[in-house]
Amino acid sequence: MNTVSPRTPDIGTKLPSVGTTIFTVMSALAAEKGAVNLGQGFPDFDCDPKLVDAVTRAMQQGLNQYPPMTGVPALREAVSAKIEALYGRHYDPTDEITITAGATQAIITVILAVVRPGDEVIVLEPCYDSYVPNIELAGGTVVRVPLTPGTFRPDFDKIAAAINGKTRAILVNTPHNPSATVWSREDMLRLQDILAPTEVLLISDEVYEHMVFDTVGTDSGHQSAARFPGLAARAFIVSSFGKTYHVTGWKVGYVAAPKPLSAEFRKVHQFNVFTVNTPVQHALASYMADPWPYLELPAFYQRKRDLFREGLKRTRFKVLPSEGSYFQCVDISDVSDKSESDFCLWLTAEIGVAAIPMSAFYGNGFDQHIVRFCFAKKDETLRVALERLAGI
Questions:
Q1: Which of 77, 160, 178, 214 is an S-S bond match for 93, by CB 3.0 to 4.6 Å?
Q2: DSSP states of 45-96 as a string?
Q3: Are 177 and 212 found together in one domain?
Q4: Is the pLDDT of residue 379 over 80?
Q5: How would you list the strands of the sheet with 97-100, edge to edge?
Q6: Residue 23: which pLDDT band, with cuts at 50, 70 and 90?
Q7: CATH at residue 346
Q8: Residue numbers of the domain that contains 213
Q9: Torsion of CA 291, 296, 301, 306, to 10 degrees
Q10: What is the enclosing helix (H) or strand (E) of 377?
């Protein structure tokens, strides 16, 4: 009898430049060293117990089978009402709102739906780490346009220069991860003007929409693409219940887009996840009847931001602006001459606080001596971290 030697075929790779993410590396190191993890962006506190109770009720009521592919109608209606109340644009909950398995799934689904081999997609660096692999999986070409170093403001001359006949879409993220900058109304109007004569689609990542700071008495706030008719008409707007309600592990988000765009989005959505957790959707729909939890979120996180920034004044870090999201970036130039990555490894292992290097959000590893902390933590967690950082 012939003996067959087991052999695993060599499948190559669609993503040759992708390895283990920096978030996984730093979180594992933080756990190993017992460090305070201010690296990965998730809260260490619980959500509102009322939300958990609502999920339990939905399960007990037998709401445990497949919901509609596009999402539970009551939740789509609640999302539509929220967008209209906050940003003044009505999205038809039947045809223009789709519930997704988190914002990351929403973004790759948009890209797979609209990007074809040879299409170019503009990303503004530094950027969230899923954007580039998503584009590559779709066969698209990534066009990297840097935000202004140090300030992380959009350079509209560079954005305009990057657009050509092959440009299919541009990805914009505000409030911005990782820099915590927020686009202004003037920024959005400038983008609207640039895109107006083109066929370029907008993928607007707005997962931190309810975390914009220092806006009392102003009309700034979050400038959703939904506010601007010329942008809304070409935009897929992505948001996240996980970020808004402190339940990142639930992985539920949504996409709002005009009917023709939503129709193409749903063609892909139905075949990569089909639908999303039923009892959680029903719970979110009932919970959204009270808008206060998301209306008070800016003040909730601004207080944490201010606590963290006040504590950082006792350190040698240069504290950069934090206009939105739940991140705080600092310049380490006066603290260390190590690279950002080496500094974060040292900080985690020796000081007991985990951070993320800004260079991880650039394709070429551009190093500005800036690292990112997450302040979506209990006050006591932040105080422990600050005490350790003050000892550097």
A1: 77
A2: S---HHHHHHHHHHHHTT--S---TT--HHHHHHHHHHHHHHHS----TTTS
A3: yes
A4: yes
A5: 97-100, 253-256, 235-240, 201-205, 167-173, 120-125, 141-146
A6: confident
A7: 3.90.1150.10
A8: 49-289
A9: 170
A10: none
Q: Rounded CA gap, 249 and 243, in Å?
A: 10
Q: Is residue 1 pLDDT above 70, yes or no?
A: no
The Cα 83–Cα 89 span in angstroms is 7
Q: How far apart are CA 262 and CA 96, in angstroms?
A: 6
- What angle (nearest 5°) sits at the alpha carbon of residue 331, between those of residues 213 and 156? 60
pTM of the model: 0.96
Whether residue 37 is found in the same domain as residue 54? no
Q: What is the pLDDT of residues 100-130, one digit of tens each?
A: 999 999 999 999 999 999 999 999 999 999 9
Arithmetic mean of pLDDT, 328-346:
97
pLDDT digits (tens, 9 = 90+) for 35-90: 999 998 899 999 999 999 999 999 999 999 999 999 999 999 999 999 999 999 99
Whether omega before 175 lies within 30 degrees of 0, making that bond cis, reads yes
What whole-number distance in Å separates Cα of residue 234 and Cα of residue 245? Answer: 28
